[in-house]
Structure formats: structure tokens, C-alpha cells
Amino acid sequence: MQIQIPDQDLKGFNEKAKEKLSEATTEFVSDLIEESNRLEASRNTTGDDPQITSSMVNDARVLLRRGLSLPKKGIGIKSLRVVSAILSLSAGMLYDTTKLQDSGYMLLFIVVITAAILTVTISTIKE
Fold it and tell me: Which pTM does this prediction carry?
């Protein structure tokens, strides 16, 4: 599919601005297609071949323009959530009343629980 913009609409745009406009348009179209596919997948209860309708494309456009679409989660936030779960589990496994009498073990426990609290808090804020 080719999208053409009349030159008269681009009056005053230098070459760099035209390139950025092209990039932004391509990115928006890609996001619109992705969101349309997501909407179709959520509405397709029969499992038939995907069929995206004009109303799905319009809904996707509205969701994207209003910022209501699901944000893409990066690998960093996913990793942070895994680390926070592992640290929380580790803190629970380290809890032993007799071993906590030892100052070295107590320090290890405090470091692990502090790291768990920080990673859980940061991952919650980032979402």
C-alpha cells in the first residue's frame, strides 16, 4: 500500500522534516496494524482466519490517539519483575530464626530483603 501526501501540504518542510514525517507515519501505521490485529484476536471467538473490519481499524486508531492501547513492555521491566520474584522467594527461604542470630547471616538477610523491596517497588512504579 502506498500513501501519498500532496506536495502543497508539505510546503515549508525541509528534507529532514520530510524524513521524520515519513518515519512517524510508518511507525503510526505499524502500531495501527498491530493494534487492529490485537483487537481482532480478542474478538475472534470462533478461531477462524483473521478478518479485520473497518470498525476494528477505527477502534485501534482511537485507542492509539488517546493513548489507551496496551503499552509495550520492554525486556528490562520483564527482567526486573523476574528478579524481584526471585529475591522475594530468596528472602522467604533465608528466614530462619536460629541462623538470624549470626550477624553475618543477618546482614545477608537484610541485604536480600532490601533488594527485594526495591525491585518490587521499582517494577510496580514502572508499570
Answer: 0.53
